[in-house]
Amino acid sequence: MQAFTDIQSKSLSAQIYSQLRYQLMAARMQPGVRLKIRELAQSLGTSETPVREALLQLVRDGALEMKPGYYIRVRRLTLNEYLETREIRLMLEPHAAVKALPHVDKAFIEQLEKVHETLIRAEADKDYPAALLANYEFHFLIYRRSGMPQLIEILERLWIQIGPLLNYLYPFGHPSYDGPHQHLHILEALRKRDAEALAEAFRADLIEGGRAFVRYLESIEPEATQ
Amino acid sequence: MQAFTDIQSKSLSAQIYSQLRYQLMAARMQPGVRLKIRELAQSLGTSETPVREALLQLVRDGALEMKPGYYIRVRRLTLNEYLETREIRLMLEPHAAVKALPHVDKAFIEQLEKVHETLIRAEADKDYPAALLANYEFHFLIYRRSGMPQLIEILERLWIQIGPLLNYLYPFGHPSYDGPHQHLHILEALRKRDAEALAEAFRADLIEGGRAFVRYLESIEPEATQ
DNA sequence: CATTGATACATGATATATCAAAAAGGGAGC
DNA sequence: GCTCCCTTTTTGATATATCATGTATCAATG
C-alpha cells in the first residue's frame, strides 16, 4: 500500500487527498455519491480549506465530477469513457511491466505470489474489498519496479477513476475466469524473463478483467443519460 | 488554443490554473523560478485562496514543485525525468494521431498546413514564443481529433512539464533539422491515410525535437544536483 | 573576524467569515 | 391534489484572519 501509507508529515490537504484516493481505488465509494465539503471537513475534524483542495484535485484527476458551480460527486463513467481508460492502460501497463522486468528477482516473485494467493483466497471468501486491494497491490508492485514514477502516477489516476465502478461490478458478474487466472501468466512470464509474454499477459489480464465492466456498463447505459 | 480560451464562467481558481498552464506550456516561465502565492494573488487582483488552489494542482501535475512546507517554484526536470516523459509520450502521441486519422479531412489538413507555415515563419523570424505556440497547436489539433479527452489531458500535463525547459532550449541548440521538417512527414502520412507512417512520423518528430533537450540537459546535469 | 543564537520577517497552511447561487421546502391559488 | 412562486436553507466560492515554520538579519561573544 506504499503509496497510501505515507500519511504523515504531509500537509493536511495532501493527507486528505491520499485518503480519498485510497477509498476510491478500493471501491469504498459508489459512483454518483455526493460529497459535501462541510460534511467531510467535520467528519475529518479539519476545516473546509484542505478538504476543498483535495476534492478539487480529485476532480481534475477525473475521479470526481462537479456540476458547474454546484455539487461534487463521485464520477460516473460511461461505457465510452471506460473504454478510453482501458485503451490508455493497454498502452501503458504492459510497458511498465516490461520496464520492471530487469529489476525483478526471485524474492520479488515470491512476494507477488503471496499477494496473488491473498487475492485468490479473498475472492473465494467473497471478501471483495480485500480482493481489490490485493489486485491493486499485485499490479503496482510490478509497476513500481519500472522506475518510472510519472508513469505510475498516471496509472494510479486511471485506477481511481475505475475504482468506484467495482462496487457495481462484483455483485454483477465480476472476474469470470474461463481459464487459469491471468496473474499466473504474468508470474510465469516474469520467471522466464520473457518481455513479450509479459506484455501480452498484462494485456490479457486487462481485457479479461474489463469484460465484466463492459457488460455491466452496456446493461446500464440507457438510463445513464444524466 | 481551444483548451486555454474557455476562461470564463469558470471558477476563479480554474481560470488561474488555465492561465498558468498556458504560460508554462508557452515557455513563459523559467525552470526554478519561485512563485509566491501572495504576489500572484495581488498581481491578479484576487485573494490567495484560488491562487493557492491553482498552484497545488500544478504541483500535482508535476509542472511546479514544492519544497516540503516551503516554497513553490517551477519544476526543474532532470535528464532522467525528461527521458521518462518522452518515453511516455512516445507511447501515447503516435496512438492519439492514429486514432485521429479517421476524422481527418481535406479542410483539416489545410488548417494544419497553415499552422505549420506559421511555425516555420516564426522560427525564421526567431520569434520562438510564436513558434512554440504553433507547434503546440499543430500537435494538439491532431490529438483532439482522436476523440480521447482523457488521453489529451494526460498529454497536456506532460507538455506543461516540458514547456519551461524550452526557455533554455532555443538559445541553446533548438530544432536542428537535418532533413525536411518532421511535420512534413506527418502531413504526408495524413494525406495518404497511412497509419503506420503517421505513427512513425510522430515518433521521429518527438525524438528529433528531443535531441536538443537531451544535449542541453546533459550539459547542465552536473550542477543540477540540488 | 568568524560563529552562533535570538529576533524579526516572510511565506505557506489552516481556519473562519462572507457571499452568491442553487436547491429544497412550503404555502397560496387554482 | 397539483402547480407555481416565494422564502429559507444549503453549499460551493472567495476573501480574510490566524498560525506555524522556515529564512534572513544582526548583534554579541569567543
Automatic annotation (TrEMBL), chains A, B:
PROSITE patterns: HTH_GNTR (PS50949). Keywords: DNA-binding, Transcription, Transcription regulation. It holds the Pfam family FCD. Residues 10-77 form the HTH gntR-type domain. InterPro entries: GntR_C, TF_FadR/GntR_C, Tscrpt_reg_HTH_GntR, WH-like_DNA-bd_sf, WH_DNA-bd_sf. Coiled coil: none annotated. This is GntR family transcriptional regulator. It comes from Tianweitania aestuarii.
